[in-house]
Amino acid sequence: MLKSIPIVLMGILFFVLGGTVSHAQTMSILDARNANEGDRVIIEGVITNSTNERDLRFIQDQSGGMAIYVPDQLFNQNVRAGDLVQVEGRIAVFRGLIEVGEVLDYKILSSQPLPEEVEFQGASENGGVRVHVSCLSLLDESNSNWKAGEYNVIWDDQAITLWVPQAANFLGDSIGDGLLDVIGIAFFDDSGWNLMIQSASPADDNCLAWLQQPQLTNASFNFVTVSLGASGDYQLQVVLHRNEDEQDTLLFNGNDYTEVMVNGLKDAQMYELDYQLFTSTDTLNHTGHWVSTQSASSKNIAVYFNNPIRDSIAIQWPYFTKGSELVNEIASRIDGAKDEVNLCAYNFNNLTIRSALDRAHSRGVRVRCIVDGNNANLGFFNTEFPVFRMTGSNALMHHKFIVIDPGSVSN
Questions:
Q1: What are the b/e assignments for 18-52, b being 16+ CB within 10 Å?
Q2: Are 259 and 275 in contact (CB under 8 A)?
Q3: Distances from the Cα of 123 to the Cαs of 119, 128, 184, 195, 259, in angstroms?
Q4: Is 312 exposed, middle or buried (0-12, 13-18, 19+ CB in 10 A)?
Q5: DSSP summary character for residue 244
Q6: What CA–CA distance (Å, rounded) separates 353 from 338?
Q7: Which of 34, 24, 38 has the alpha carbon at shortest distance from 66?
């Protein structure tokens, strides 16, 4: 009996030393998030959510948080929200979400309070941690009461997907007017920011949130109208970028849903609009909204077919069914060009149109052509105007169109 005691003591000593070595290998969650996919890691932190239908748990320490994919029923039965655990596993990236995708071992160390939520900023350090998000605007108002599933919301100028788990304790509660304050766990994947909700309440009355981000509702040749919506009364500043060096600033007063007109524009032009909504306590921004004015052309349309068609087909515009009519019309339009001719063709072989291009070039019209470089393009040998042959790509340059004098109001 006495001879066996040292063996038992050695076993105990080995166990203690083994636990010490494992703890020494523990890394911060931030370092684990920066590890390579497939790396074996040991992390320690507080589990911040309960088991759910996606088998997705979250763990958080002082450096940050991350997801753990755990389909293991035993883990989900034993590990509760608030448990301080040590987890050993391999880093995986699933649809852009960095997670411990294979749990090799785990140990429950103690029970802890949930980490205090931080204010959501839409930054990388918010990934995997408990956050508070104020003034969310719910876009999907088809439900008046909370149900399990996903909801689309806007926070500031970002789209966020809310995930309400099937075990959420607020299912059936009223959503209210769709302006929300939420506590939950933020995580980022290929779809953008997501938020697993743990609690939701109505937003403050002074909350300024998007009800509808700016949308183009009408465009003429010299103005556009844009509709937008935000909660309450606000002032709206619209910055119109005419070009890289020139911009105008327009001011409007708004209440809930508003439509504004931006005029004094040029026809057939694209403009970038930036918006800032502000009250005495809050601001909202939306940038990079591109709009275009209409062309001042007659908008007359004629349809040409290079082969006959069935008479039973109803076409609302004048149409022609002989290939020669199409070729002659193109040549005639090129002969009438004053400034420039731009042509794209997959494989160009027509000598009648080539002759018209030569005549245009000879009288000083700017002629440019683009073709697929993998084809013969027999109609473009020995040209005096530039022909760009698109090569070096698996894609085809399959366009077939011609633009003549784009700056002319008659085209």
A1: eeeeeeeebbebbebbeeeeeeebbbbbbbbbbbb
A2: no
A3: 11, 11, 15, 13, 32
A4: exposed
A5: S
A6: 16
A7: 34
Q: Kindly state the tokens that stand for 394.
A: 């698996």
Which tokens in the block code for residue 366?
A: 């700017």
Q: Which amino acid is at 305?
A: F
> Residue 268, SS3?
coil
Token digits of residue 192 = 């953008």
Task: Extract the runs of DSSP E, i.e. beta strands, from 157-246.
Answer: 158-164, 179-189, 192-202, 210-219, 223-241
Give the total residue count for the chain: 411
Q: Work out the number of other CB atoms within 10 angstroms of the CB of residue 57.
A: 25
Q: What are the percentages of helix, strand and coil residues in the chain, rounded to 5? A: 15, 45, 40
Angstrom distance (rounded) from CA 330 to CA 42: 71
- Please check whether residue 163 is in contact with residue 181, taking contact to mean a CB–CB distance below 8 angstroms: no
Measured distance CA(389)–CA(371) in Å, rounded: 5
**What are phi and psi for residue 266, nearest 5 degrees?**
-95, 150
- 256-312 pLDDT, tens per residue? 899 999 999 988 889 999 999 999 888 999 999 999 999 877 777 888 888 777 777
How far apart, in whole angstroms, are the C-alpha atoms of residue 269 and residue 162?
Answer: 38
* Pairing assessment for the beta strands 130-138 and 118-119 based on DSSP bridges: parallel
CA end-to-end span of the chain, whole Å? 106
Note the pTM of the prediction, 2 decimals.
Answer: 0.68
Q: Which stretch of DSSP H or E encloses residue 20?
A: helix 4-24
Express each pLDDT in 247-261 by its tens digit.
999 999 999 899 999
- Give the range with max mean pLDDT: 69-73, 154-158, 180-184: 180-184
pLDDT of residue 205: 79
User: What distance in Å separates the CA atoms of residue 249 and residue 241, rounded to the nearest whole number?
Assistant: 9
Cα 77–chain centre separation: 37
Would you place residue 43 in the very low, low, confident or very high pLDDT band (cuts 50, 70, 90)? very high
3-class DSSP state of 379:
helix
